[in-house]
Structures are given as C-alpha cells and as structure tokens.
Design brief:
By secondary structure, this protein is mainly α. The protein has 33 helices and two strands. The chain has a two-stranded antiparallel sheet. The radius of gyration is 32 Å and the shape is elongated.
C-alpha cells in the first residue's frame, strides 16, 4: 500500500522532464497510467470475502508516528474513487488542456494531490493523517490557482487555503487531545477505547476541533464559501477535487471517527444540524446562480450536506445510505462537471443566460447531462442511481433515534421536513441546469447554426461516469454486499444490510419523492415569478462579505502593529527580542521555582581556568573599544578560542574541536569580507540609550548565568547524560557519544536543520535565476 500512496508523488518527480515533449505526446497520457494501475491493484480487494488489512512502515517510532496504512471497506471505497475518477479526469484533461499550457506544473500538482488523498484515507496514524490532510490543502491551493494570471483564481485559491488550513489546525488540536487521553496514535486502537473517550471531560472540545476540520474541508455551512470561488480552477480540477475527492475528505473524517462519537448525543445534534442546513442552503443558493460551474458548486455543497446529515443520524439505514450516495454523487457530479467544461470550451461561455438550445447542437453531451441532472434530482426512474440513495435518505430521516434532550427530539421531528425542502430545491436547480442550457432556444445568445459537439476522446470520461450511473441504477446489488456493505460496516459495525430495490410500495419515502417531484416542477416552471425572493433573502447578506471584512481587518490591524515596531533599527529589533526572552524566562523560572543555586558538587577552580576566563572577559570588553575592523575580528576570535580551551580543560575534546573549527571558519569568513564592512567609528548616543543598552546586556547576561547555575543545581529530573552513556553503543552503534547524539539521538532535529539549509539553497538559487543581468544581485 505504501507504494500505491507514494507512487503519484514519485512519478511527479519525472513529469517536468516528460513535459518537455508535450508538443509530440501529451503529458497526460503518461500521468493517466498512475491512477489506472492503482485502481487495478485495489479493485482486486472488492468482494464478499474482503477482510481489513494493516501495513506498518516505521517512520518515527519513538514518537509513535509511523506509516500505518489500514485498508477496510471505507478506505477501499475512497481509494477506488480517488484512483478511478482520477484516471478519467486525467484522460479528460488531455483534451481540455492544450499543450501550450504549463502541463508540467499542472500534473505535478495533480499527482501531489493524489498522493495526499491516498494518504488521508489509508492512514491509521492520526499525525500521518494530518500531514497528508494539510498536503491536500497545499496541493489544492496550487491547482485552484493554476491560472494564476487570473485574479479570481488567486482569490479562490487563497480563500480555500485559509479556510481549510484553519480547519486543519483545529483538527490537529482534537487529534492531539485524543492521542493524549488514549495514549495511542492509532485510530483503530482509539476505537477500542470508545467508552473511555466518551467519559472524558475533554470530549466536547475534541468533538468541536475535529468537526471544524471536517466541516471546513467538506464545505459545510457556514464554511462553504470557499467552494464556489474554487470553480475558477480548470474544469478537470473541479471534476476531481470538488466532486469525488477533496470535498469528501471531511465526509471521510466524520465517517472514520463515527464509531467513537456516535454514542455522544451532541454528535448527532451538531452533525445533523450542520448537514441539513448545508443541504437546504446549498440547494436554495444554487437556483440563484447563473454560472454553470457555480450551480454545480452549490449543488455539491447541498449534496455534501445530505451525506453529512446521514452520517450524523448514525442509524444503520442512514450509514448505508450515506455510503451509497458517496458513490452515486461521484458518478453523476463528475460527469456534470465535465459536461460544463465541454460547454465552456466549445461555446466560450458558462453563463446560463446566454446558453440554450444546445440539445440539437451537441446531442451526445446533452444526453450525458440528462442522465446526470435527473440522477442528481432524484427522479424516480429505475436506471438512475441518484433516486435510490435519495429515497434511502428519506427513509433514514423517518427512523431517527430519540435522545435524552428535548432539542434532540425536536430535531427528530423536523428533519424529515427539512430533507424534503432541501430536495425540492435540488430538483429545481437540476431542471434549471438541464432545460435552460439544452432547451429554450429563444433565450440563447450563441450561434445556433454551429455544431459544438466535442471530439469522442473528450466524451469518454463523462460517458464512463454516466454508464456508472445507469449500471448502478439497473443493478444496485452488484455493488452492495461485496463493496458498499463493507464500507458501511467499517462505520457502523453493523452487518447484513438489506438488498437495494427500486420499489418498496406506496410508502412515506415514496410520497416524499413524489412531493419533491410535484412541488419542484411547479417551482421550476414558475421561477420568474418567485426569483425576486433572493433580493429579500439573503439580499445583501453574505458570508463572503464577512470573510472579506475579516481578511481586510486582519491585514490592516497587522500592518499597524508591524509598523509600530518595524522601524528599520537593528538595535530596536534586538532590544525587543532580548527583553522578551528576559521577561518570559524570569517569569517562567519564578512560577516554577526554577531558581536554584547549589555549588557543592562542582569541580575545583584552578588558576588555569581563572586565567582563561579573564582572557575571554578582557577580549570581549576590548572588542567594544576597537576602532579597526581587523583588530575587532581577531580580538573577538580570542573569545571563541578561549571557550574551546575551556572545553579541553573540562575533558570535552569533541566539543572543543567543533568550537575550534567553527571559530576558525567564522574568523576567516569575517576577514575575507571585512572590506565590505562599514568602518568602525564612535557613535554619539544619549545617556538614556547607553543606559538601556547596559541594562539589557547586563540583564541578558544575568539571565544566562542564572539559567546555567540553576540547571546544574536543580535535581528535578534524572541526568540525561547517564542515558546517553548507557545507550550510545547499543542504540546508536557508536562509542563517540557526541556523534551519536548529533546523528542518532537528535536525528530528526538534524534532519530539519538540513532541510532548512536546503530550502535556503533553493531560495538563493531562485533569486540568482531571477536576476535580470549579472549586475543585479
């Protein structure tokens, strides 16, 4: 599994070279093989005899952070969607993106996102999951802002990044709390401690933090505002990220942690309310839109709300319906995004007010849209998969469990009505999307004498997805026991799910579907008469205005604060840093009784140490009074070499050698560059400035002295030196303790230091590459 997760990222390393021949062979042909092979690998696990699989690759075992990949029914569902839809999206992009585009960058970002999504749905370790989670935010930011020359693309990319990163950090807080109270980083092990978690005082905080991560990623109300702006991305990105993958990451998170939280009544309340509100608000706002992709964006919001609500219900029927709709939504919504891209590419517009009469001009595309929109609307036809999961949704709203809170029972009562309300507007925007684009020739402002049908290659991907819509509709049980049931079992723990059938009799769910069909038809046919309601509600009210205000206010306040201390004076900066360190350190030591002075167990001070220390002090003071650059550098070098001598005296030859090398290199570099230094001269400063300098320098020196003495004098912990002496050979395989500490014991720290240096190298290379000529540095 680890190869499947990281294969896209490894292939991405070669894409810049492959893209150099894009004018001969489109880069997408090479890229499409990656998700295709992954899909073929994982499809073998589909079947009634499937059992969960765990694979562990050690990463940072001392911190409990390993690549623990867990494949169960839920993760298998998502992996197949990510790889299957990914293959179709890459194939579609071959015909959508011309070779003149920056194909290398596009496919690198797409493969990076693919790895991130695989990591999210397969990781059992919460911190590895979080790492991949944030990688989805970063890669989606790059994909949404792919057309960076477009201001709206940059705006949408930044908005999605800020909102999802905010949710990601909140989620991290919840995951840390979970790992602390359960003493494990494994989700599966946490599930075994469900009763202990439910009895924890931190449970409400954990729930809020994790749900914030899920709601922001899956565009739930009121965090949904980033998704419509993300439609500025190329259509392949919208079809991939915003129908089957990224927006369902939050759905996956809630589903994965449902076994833990489903026993908590406030989980039902919060998830159900947010889900139903998102369904109603998304569907209501979709009818208002005039851009094809904006309609699809709000429709995605409403559909995600429906799935989220079913996960909140937590019943056996609701969980299965949620899993079923995750699959169905990926098929019809992916095809509709691709159809929207075809229309935009061929007609030059996505404005529904300018479109019309396209059924005769692009009949194949229109037929695909017909199946997609009618399935999304939940039209009761036996060959449309959307109807099955929509009716299962209605059924689940009628069998909710009552709780101990009065508000819970109130929700149980009104949720079926809200479900019908949201579904009515879902039907309206679905009909609006199809009939206003492909019928109604009288309003069209495009050339109706021109054929707009794309090449067959561009139709392959939406055609495959529509075949999926029909196939699932005609043979739903083909996907039930060997596929969907495993995913539902992973969430609810239940087994033996009922067979999926089209006709259940003239029951309440069917009446709810007919109600949606009837009222939805009336509302669609009379849209012109009631559309004025949007000028009243929501009117000028918009969460986008709140977001823009918060962003502008944050920028302005930050600018004022920054200007208050960014004066251009290095002395001011150093003073602020040192004073802050001084205050924080002394307060911390005072509150923790950190001041301790014990001189009983110290080595005897000889005349040799006194002479060396005196030399260091004299050299340090002499540096202040030197008026010559070279002299100041050499005198300052005495301080460093004096410290090295102290290390030798106290039998630390390794540290002494390191100090000697560093000091020698530093002095040599200073001497080589002293020509460019400003000439030393006495500065005329006020008594106040000199006094402040003296206080800060003396205070900082006193602080470091007290820290050193207190560290030696206190006995709060066992001396770590004993640990290094005992374990350097068996754990690090070396007798040189200092080297073992640097390379093995502090290996992660050293790794990040090297990483920082590497980033600096790339930054410097970028600056050099961007210079206009050799004189610009």
């Amino acid at each position: 599994m680890i190869f499947a997760v990281f294969a896209p990222l490894l292939v991405a390393l070669f894409i810049p070279q492959v893209s150099k021949i894009k004018h001969k062979i489109h880069t997408g042909y090479f890229v499409a093989l990656v998700p295709l092979f992954i899909f073929v690998y994982f499809i073998q696990f589909v079947g009634e005899g499937f059992q969960p699989i765990m694979q562990t690759i050690n990463w940072i075992p001392s911190l409990g952070i390993n690549f623990d990949f867990y494949l169960d029914g839920l993760s298998l569902l998502f992996v197949l969607l990510i790889s299957g839809i990914g293959t179709l999206v890459v194939l579609y992009s071959i015909y959508y993106l011309d070779y003149t585009e920056r194909l290398g960058s596009f496919y690198v970002y797409l493969l990076m996102f693919m790895t991130a999504m695989f990591g999210v749905v397969l990781s059992d370790n919460v911190f590895v999951l979080y790492s991949f989670w944030e990688l989805t935010s970063i890669s989606s930011f790059l994909l949404i802002g792919y057309w960076h020359f477009n201001e709206r693309s940059r705006y949408g990319a930044l908005k999605s990044l800020l909102i999802t990163i905010f949710g990601g950090l909140s989620m991290l807080g919840g995951l840390i709390l979970l790992s602390v109270i359960t003493k494990t980083t494994s989700i599966q092990e946490m599930i075994t401690q469900t009763d202990f978690i439910l009895s924890s005082n931190y449970l409400p905080l954990i729930l809020v933090f994790i749900l914030l991560g899920a709601f922001t990623k899956s565009a739930q109300f009121p965090f949904h505002i980033w998704l419509p702006d993300a439609m500025e991305a190329p259509t392949p990105v919208s079809a991939y990220l915003h129908s089957a993958t990224m927006v369902k990451a939050g759905i996956y998170l809630v589903a994965r942690f449902s076994p833990i939280f489903s026993g908590f009544e406030w989980f039902f309340i919060s998830v159900s309310i947010i889900g139903i509100l998102t369904l109603c608000w998304g569907s209501f706002m979709a009818v208002r839109q005039t851009d094809l992709k904006a309609i699809l964006a709000y429709s995605t919001i409403s559909q995600l709300g429906m799935i989220m609500a079913m996960l909140g219900f937590g019943t056996k029927a609701a969980i299965f319906a949620a899993v079923f709709h995750i699959l169905n939504h990926a098929t019809f919504k992916g095809s509709l995004f691709m159809v929207a891209g075809i229309i935009d590419l061929k007609t030059g517009t996505r404005d529904i007010r300018k479109l019309g009469g396209l059924f005769t001009l692009m009949p194949i595309t229109a037929t695909l849209a017909l199946f997609g929109t009618f399935s999304m609307a939940g039209v009761p036809l036996p060959f449309l998969n959307g109807f099955y999961s929509k009716e299962a949704f209605f059924t689940s709203t009628l069998s909710l469990n009552e709780g101990s809170l009065a508000f819970t029972n109130f929700l149980v009562t009104i949720i079926p009505y809200l479900a019908v309300l949201g579904s009515i507007f879902t039907f309206v925007y679905s009909m609006y999307l199809f009939f206003d684009v492909f019928m109604k020739k009288d309003k069209a402002k495009i050339d109706l004498n021109k054929k707009y049908e794309p090449s067959f290659g561009m139709l392959i991907s939406p055609l495959v997805l529509v075949i999926g819509v029909v196939l699932i509709g005609l043979m739903p049980n083909l996907f039930n026991s060997g596929f969907l049931a495993h995913a539902a079992t992973s969430i609810s723990g239940e087994t033996d799910f009922a067979q999926i059938s089209y006709w259940h009799g003239f029951n309440t769910p069917f009446i709810m579907s007919l109600t949606v069909l009837g009222i939805g038809t009336v509302l669609y046919t009379s849209m012109n008469k009631w559309m004025g309601i949007y000028s009243v509600f929501p009117g000028n009210l918009s969460f986008n205005r709140v977001y823009d205000w918060l962003l502008a206010k944050t920028d302005s306040v930050s600018e004022k604060i920054t200007h208050s201390y960014m004066t251009g004076s290095l002395r001011t900066y150093m003073s602020i840093i040192l004073v802050t360190m001084f205050i924080v350190t002394f307060i911390t030591m005072y509150l923790t009784n950190g001041f301790a002075i014990d001189l009983t167990d110290l080595a005897e001070i000889t005349i040799l140490e006194i002479v060396v220390v005196a030399s260091i002090l004299i050299a340090a003071i002499a540096t202040l009074y030197s008026n010559n650059n070279v002299a100041a550098i050499l005198i300052l070098g005495i301080v460093g070499y004096g410290v090295a001598i102290l290390f030798v005296i106290y039998r630390a030859p390794d540290i002494a050698l390191t100090q000697l090398v560093i000091e020698t290199v530093t002095v040599a570099l200073f001497l080589l560059t002293f020509y460019h230094f400003p000439k030393l001269k006495k500065r005329q400063e006020s008594v106040k400035t000199k006094s402040v300098n003296l206080i800060i320098s003396a205070g900082f020196g006193l602080m470091m002295t007290l820290i050193g003495i207190s560290a030696v004098s206190s006995n709060w912990f066992d001396k770590i030196s004993d640990y290094f002496i005992e374990t350097s050979l068996p754990l690090g395989g070396g007798r040189n303790i200092v080297n073992v500490i640097l390379v093995d014991m502090r290996g992660v720290d050293t790794l990040f230091e090297i990483t920082v240096l590497g980033i600096a190298v790339f930054a410097i290379y970028g600056l050099i590459k961007l210079r206009k000529d050799k004189g610009d540095l």
